Structure formats: structure tokens, C-alpha cells
Amino acid sequence: DDASFGGLDDEKWSFSTATEAGFSYCRGKGGTYTQGGFVVDFPRQPDEGLRMLHELRACGFLDGGARAVAINIPLYNVDQDIFGIYRFLVEFMETGYVWKFENYYFIDAKEYLANGNYVPIFLQAFMLMFITFYVGDMCYQLHSSVTHGLTWKYMRDMWNWVEIMNNSVFVAVIYFRLKFYSSEVLNDASGDYLIEEEYINIELCGYQYDMELGLVAFNILVSFLKVFKYLKPFPRFYMPWATVGRAFPDLLCFLFLFLGCMTSFIIVGNLTFGKQMRAFRTFNSGIKTMILFLLGDFSYDEMPHINKVIAPIFFYGYIILMVLIMFNMATAILLDAYSAEKEDMLVVPPSTLFSNLRDYWHQNVLWLSRGSSKSAAKSGKKVGFAGEAEKMRRHHSNSENFTAVINRNISKAASKTSKNSEFAHPMVRHNQSLIPPKPSGRSRDGSQHCRVIFNVRFKVYTGAGFYCRRWHMDTLGQHDGGAVVELPYGCILLKSWLSVAEQKQLVDCSFRLAAEANKEWLKSATSQEHPYIVCSYDKNPPPRAKDCVRACGLRACTGACGRPSCKQEPTLLYSLADDAIARARKVADCGGVQLPEAFCPDTVWGLVYKEQDCMPSHLDRAEGWVLSISVGATVKFVVGRKPEKGSMYGEYAPHKPVPEQVEQTVLVESGDMLLFRGDTVFHAVDGICPDTAPEFWTDERHDTGGLARIGLLFRDGH
């Protein structure tokens, strides 16, 4: 009712609109009231204010039609330079009951009225520029999506909604801040204005200030969630969101059942206990009470006094169904999704924050210090371009698009650095693949050409930003043919130890044993995304659980490592290993290299690799020495790198590893053998050097189905 009353011409008897009153909404317990109303300004003198109050009472200012009275008292703290607004709201209900409600607003005047405080102004200007850039970028992406008909794809991404929400709140905060700076009340609320008799209405400013603080607080939470968007390239940081995404279908079905059961309990509680318990008086209060029940905060003592029959059924039924069953079911869904996500992540060990910072240092600082490729081309030096395509393919499933992008970037870089094909890398000239051409022959110092250190730098857009990296490939020890080289931590490298005939014999025997154990072994090996055990034998097989962590990485055990897959003992393989160790012992004794006193292998594994396969760093469960014979493409073998905690091989074997191990990489070529303690030395396979297989392996590649290497592992003891 906005009609005038009282029969007087005074303003206090006439209805004031929201613009004239200048107040905010009044929200009480009985409802929310508009910004307009009948307004009375009381003077500052107590006697004059008391006289006006008696006059309003005598004239019937508050009658039976009054629903609420709001008293606003502006305050100013001189010591703290803070404005305050105290609001006391009284509501008159139809039944005669009176509700009382009070609220406070505070405004820090120093933030707006201080002169010469340029630091906050500069920071706010910088923030405004930053927000303008991000809002413009968001609008451009949205416009591009609409133009190309990809609106649904853009809106389907949860992080785009977070981006829109974050930028929208930023714009709202900027709007409120500009209104504060342009507020006449705050700009004039100084000096003589504070001692004038007129009422200073800063209640609306206080309401807007409170709204701004609420938006800022909400945006802090949204901005924190936005951090996970930029941590998406790091799987360990993104693991919580990946887990929820994998479990989302199951969680959605579970949530439907959970809400249905909880709603039924809320209705029962409201009908049974609502008239006598405040906790179940309304549906909203019942929701809060049921959630507190899940967390163990409940008051059961009052329930039996209301209804002795339904109270225990209601309470214990809720505890059993919702807490013991539903709550633990949700936990099981998340744990199962986390385990599956962890297994997928461990197929390829993720990069760490330290490794990315190290790569950034190498690619930006060290690269610039060595000079640009243009200066090298002008001086007549050859500039080599190669890619770590195999390592990057392990991080990207869509290898065709990824390979095309890298080839395009490398071709552009080569065309800029050299107009003459003499200075271009053969890989770029042929434009066939990212794999460098196969080296032929040996250099003057007897070392293989694949030992050349490739400094690679390319820029590829991966979808999460520009990914720049430089790959460093190096070797340890000497690579003289037929030599015994002593490596760190007691490891021994036997270079070029097997002849071509022995390598062929070993491959034929291994593949024949694999076919006897499984006729479709080649199909099984090439269909996996990890190394695969094709043959195995153990002279003294120990009791071993079937569900174990295996090198093959399979969830369902095929028994290849739990029991011998070979029907008979592969005497040829054992004899090759014994003969190789016997020959190495003679050479080692002459060179002063110490080999194990006795090496009698009990177990043999045949492990095949594809070009993209790798093996995380680990320790062997069995004690004793390990002899690794490599046939096929050159492999990057790493010793001394400690596994990361939480990885598949993060828990070490029950033996103490060699202390203070440092990561070292050695290139193991076809016909080489490695002898090391697998239970004390961390070892890993970081990948295959492309196009480095011997000629006989390449000629018979149609028989291997795309396999790049086979490794025979002989273990002495358990």
C-alpha cells in the first residue's frame, strides 16, 4: 500500500519511491521488503528526536497496516576511519507476533578516500588491464566457436563455464568499485559535511560494499578452481578431476538413489518429529539435519520422547542405509575410478614439475647462450633437426595429427635456417617421417653414428599450450666392439658380444617358444601399449600370487610370469647365456674388470618391445644378478633413477638399494649385454632409438609384426 495517510502534507506521510528513499532491500525473517516506503529523518539532538517520536505516535504513524519498521543508524569511527550502518528491523505478523532482526554494514573509508596512495591504484589498474585481456580472449573464443559451429563443443567443457563465471564476477566487481569511486556521498563525507544536521544516507553504499566483498570472496574460490585447468598437463595435479570425470556416470546414478533415499527420510522426520523438534520443522532444516547425521552430529535423545516406535526405526535405518551402505558405496566408486586412473597414468610415467622447469631452462636459457640457428647457418655449420617423436607419441594417442604438426614445424624451421639442401637434415629433405635415417658404418674413432648427441628444439601446439623441449641423448663408457665396460653401481656392459648368427639363433628360439606357449602371441604383443612377456621359464618356480605387479602391466594375469610358459626347458637360451658369461669372464680378467664369481641363471624372460614402449624405473623382486641380452633396435637404458612415490614401482623390493644413485643413460645396441644387480640398482627403459635395428631384423620385419626389440632377461636366484 503506497497511498498517503494521516491527512498531513508532511513528506513522512507520503510514500517515497526507491530512488527517493535511497535504501536497499529489507530482508527479515517474515519476508523481503522493497526499497521504498514512508521515511522519517530524525534529528541528531536527543530531545528533538524524542519530541518527534511522540508526535508520530500521537498521529498514528504506526497502525494496524504497518508490516515492518526499519531503523537505520549511520556511524563513523574517527580512530579507525570506518563508516558503519546499523539496521534494526521489526516485523509485525498477522497473529500479533513481533520478529526482530538486526544487521551491520561497514565501509573502510581509507580504501577510497586516501590521497596519494598510488600503489593500490596502480595494482587495480594492472588488474583491470589483465581482466580486460582475459574477457576479450574469452569473447573471441566464444565468437569463433559460434562462427565455426562449435558452440556445443565449447559449452561442453566444464572449464569454459568456470572461465565465464570467473570473468563475469570480475566485471561485476569492477562495476561496484567504479560506483564507489563515483559516489557523491563518500566523496562529500568529509570536513563540515559530517557535522551538518542533514541525515547522511550511506546505507546503499554499505549494501553495495557488502555485495562487492561477497563477490570477491566467491571469485577467490572460482579462481582457485581455475588453477586446476592450467595444471591439466601435469597428471598428478589433475588426478582429482580426472578421477571424478571417470566416475561421473556411476556417481550420477548413485546420486539419484542417494537423493531419493534421503528425501524419504526427510519427509518421515518432518511428519513425525517436525511439530516438536526445530531440526525437522521445515524441509530445508531437515536437509541440514540429515547431512549432519552423515557426519555424526545428531540428537537422538529427543526422538524417543516424541515417538518410541518410529524413532529407533528411523534412526538406525538411516545409519545402516545411508551411512554404512550409501556413503561407503560412494567412496568405493571414487576409489575404483582413482585406481583405474592411476593405472592409466603409470603406463607412461608423467612428467614432473621439476622436469618441466629443467626443460624450460634448457630450451630458453642454454639454447640462447649457444647462439641462434641463423648464425650457425651463416657460418657454414650444419644445423640438425630431429624430433623426440617416440617419446612424445607416448604422451599423445593421436599420433597421426601430432606427427603432421611436428613435420610442418620442422620443415618451416629448416627452410628458414638454410636455403641450400646441403645444410638440411636428411629427415627434412626426404619428408618421409620423423625418424632420422639409419646410420651406416662407424666413425673414425670406432663409435657408432647413433652416439651423436642430437640437440633438438621444436615447438608444437598440444592443445594445452606451446610445448617446447630439447632432447639430449648421450652414452656412458666406451663402445669398442667386443669390449667389457665397467659402469657405475657395479653394472657391466658387454659391447657387441653376440655375433649376427647368435642373435638370429636367439630370436628364432624365442619366437618359437612364444608360439608354443601361445599361438596368437604376436597379436597379443602388438595390441598392448607396453612391453609384453612372450616366453618364460623358471627352473625352481617359487610360490607366487597370481594377482601381482608385473612387467607386462596386464590387469588379468596370463601366467607368463607366475608360472613357466615354456613346456620344456629352453636349453639353447641357457647355453647362450652361459657361453657369453664364460667368454666375458676371460676378457674381464685380463682387463681388470670384476665379474660375479658365479652366475647360474634360474629364470629366463623373453620381453618384446614396440617402438613406443618403455619401462618405468624399478627394482627387481628377486635377489641376485641379472643378465639382459638385447637384440633389435637400440634402447635407452637408464640406471640410478629413483622411482617416484606412488608409481607402479614406487614401493621398493625388500632389499636396500645402492645409496645415492644418480641417473645415468647408456645406449644398448643389438648384440649387447648388461650384467647388473636388479634388486639393488634402479633401472628403466626410456624408449627405443628409431631406425637403429640391424639389417637382419629389418629384413625379417614382416615376421615380427612391427616389433622393434626383444630382451632376454636371465636371473640368478630369487
Structural category: alpha+beta
Contiguous low-pLDDT stretches (5 residues minimum) are: 367-481, 544-563
Quick one: CATH superfamily of the largest domain? Alpha-ketoglutarate-dependent dioxygenase AlkB-like
- CATH class bucket of the largest domain: Mainly Beta
CATH topology title of the largest domain: Jelly Rolls
Distance between the termini: 92 Å
Strand content: 5-15%
Would you count the extended β strands for me? Answer: 18
The CATH architecture of the largest domain would be: Sandwich
Profile the largest sheet.
7 strands, antiparallel
Total count of domains: 5
Explain this structure.
GO terms for molecular function: calcium ion binding. The protein is α+β, with helices and mostly antiparallel strands. The chain has 5 domains: 11-108, no CATH class; 113-230; 239-347; 353-469, no CATH class; 484-715, Sandwich (Jelly Rolls). It is built from 22 helices and 18 strands. The protein has helices at residues 18-21, 46-58, 110-113, 118-147, 151-156, 158-181, 184-188, 203-230, 235-273, 283-294, 302-306, 310-347, 353-369, 373-378, 389-393, 399-417, 426-430, 500-517, 521-527, 571-591, 695-699, 701-704, and strands at residues 26-27, 32-33, 68-77, 82-92, 98-108, 458-461, 466-469, 484-486, 492-494, 532-538, 603-609, 615-618, 625-632, 635-639, 664-668, 673-677, 683-688, 709-715. The chain has a 7-stranded antiparallel β-sheet, with helices on one face. It has a 4-stranded antiparallel β-sheet with strand order 12-17-14-15, with no helix packed on it. It has a 3-stranded antiparallel β-sheet with strand order 3-4-5. The longest helix has 39 residues, at 235-273.
